[in-house]
Each structure stands twice: as C-alpha cells, then as structure tokens.
Amino acid sequence: MLINMTQLLEIAQKEKFAVGAFNVSDNALFQTVVETAEENMAPAIIEVHPTELAYAKDNFFKYVVARLSNSPIPFVLHLDHGDTIQNVLRAIRCGFTSVMIDGSLLSFADNVALTKEVVHICHQLDISVEGELGTIGAMGDTFEKGGDAVTGVAYTDPQDAKLFVEQTGVDTLAVAIGTAHGIYPDGFEPKLNLAILKQIKETVAIPLVLHGGSNNPDSEISSAVSLGVQKVNISSDFKREIYKKLTEILTTKGGWDPNNLFPEAILAGKKVVKQKMELFESIDKAHLYETVKPWRKDSL
C-alpha cells in the first residue's frame, strides 16, 4: 500500500515508534528493503536521492510504484535531499508520495522561501514535504551534501525550528544533532546531542527526522526515537553489507549471472534492514494502518 509521509508518521508518532527510510537505486536494493518489510510486517520508506533517481531512470519507478501499491504493507516513496524545484517536480511525475526539499545550506530566509514554495506545490497534490534546518555532517565517499562531520555540523536551533515550521508548513523536519552521512572511520565516536533534540521536540509538534542514521550506536538511535524521532534514514549500513557479500562471492566463486550472485548478498542486506526495524520498534506495526486509505495519484 502506497501512502504519503503524513499518513505514515501520524500513526508512528501516536504509537511511539520510528520508521526506517532506506535509500535504493536498483532492484537488488529495492528488493532487500521491500521483502524485509513484508516478512516482518513493518512499515517502511523507500528513499531515493536525486543522483539515485537519475541513475535508475524514470521507468524503474513505474515498477517501484506498482510494486508498493500492490503490497499489503504501508510504504512511502520519498525523494531524499531534493535541492531544486526541478528534481521535486521530477519525483512528483514519477509517482513519489513525499519529497524533501533541502535548503539547509541557504540562509534561514532563503531556506524558508524555497521550502514554502515546495509545500505550496505539493500540498495541492496530497504529497508530504520534509524540510531541513541545521547542517548534517558528511563522512568520506557519500553523494549527500553536508559539512565536515567534525567541524561542519551546525546544530538545529530549537527556536529557529519553531519559526521554520510555522512559516513553511512542512510536514516533517530533519534536524541536525550530530549525525553525519556515510560510514564513520575507525576511531571516530559519534555523539548525538540528545539535549538539543529534546528541546526541539518541546517546540515542534510535527514528526522529526534523523539523517545519517547509519553507523551510529544503537543506544543513541534508540534514545533519539524515544525522544520523538519518527523517521531514521539508513543507506550506507545495508548497502555496505550487500556489496561486501557480493565482493566475497565474486572473489571466491566467480561467475556473472545475477541469479547466482545476488541472492546471498540480498540476504546479507536483509539482516541489517531487519535489525534496524527492530531498533526502531516498527516490526509488526503494519496492522495499525489497516484503516488508512491508499494514496492515489489518479484520484487527485
């Protein structure tokens, strides 16, 4: 069942669990997430960065939309880190039910203006909008923007968050509390500023989003969920396991047929996705959406 982010996270917020948002750009990654969600009766978010959307091509998402629409599990198809009106419109044309507009590297006023414009467009189409305030770090080889994970993180100011939500009308807000995109190098110990998260939650009523959820200590992610994070972005963690297994198979067994190469790799990825769903407490929560009406583009 394909729904929008507001429909998905309204229930997650009420029932106090989070939903994983997993980045995909091909069928192996997509299959890993969808099948894990179905096997565990867990709602999930299929997330696609503009560079992933460009790589996978629009036709791939016709299949994605059909597959999600015909699943008994609630899914959202979400644009991750959209930074222009153009890639937001492309996602809408592809059938996405939620978009992120990332103006976090702009001035506060320009971020508000861009986000407000996207909200105006998307809410007319029943598409949810995620905004971002503050700067999330970046580690190593990642396609996602951000400052240096040590020196370039600008924490979200709780009062700015309140103003931003009021002035833009966003449905969800990505906050910067010390995470970074990508995999942390050996010896680096991330530390989330949960005190800031708590202050933001006291000023903002909408669901909060944690980017850079990979490679963080489970205890900190669990604490963030308990404090009000309803969406956690995961990319590097499960992709790394898939391609580690694929490399192992190619190195030790050889071969070139996808049906011989990918099954074990997908299983490796599924283990990570399931562990994240357990951490977010979203397993066996699909039944909570039984009365939710599917999102239908053709009914708008």
TrEMBL record:
Gene3D superfamilies: Aldolase class I
Cofactor(s) this protein cannot do without: Zn(2+)
InterPro entries (alphabetical): Aldolase_TIM (IPR013785), Class_II_FBP_aldolase (IPR050246), FBA_II (IPR000771)
Pfam families per UniProt: F_bP_aldolase
SUPFAM superfamilies, alphabetized: Aldolase
Signal peptide: none
CDD domains according to UniProt: TBP_aldolase_IIB
NCBIfam families per UniProt: cbbA (TIGR00167), PRK08185.1 (NF006042)
Descriptive protein name: Ketose-bisphosphate aldolase
Organism: Pseudolactococcus carnosus
Lineage: Bacteria, Bacillati, Bacillota, Bacilli, Lactobacillales
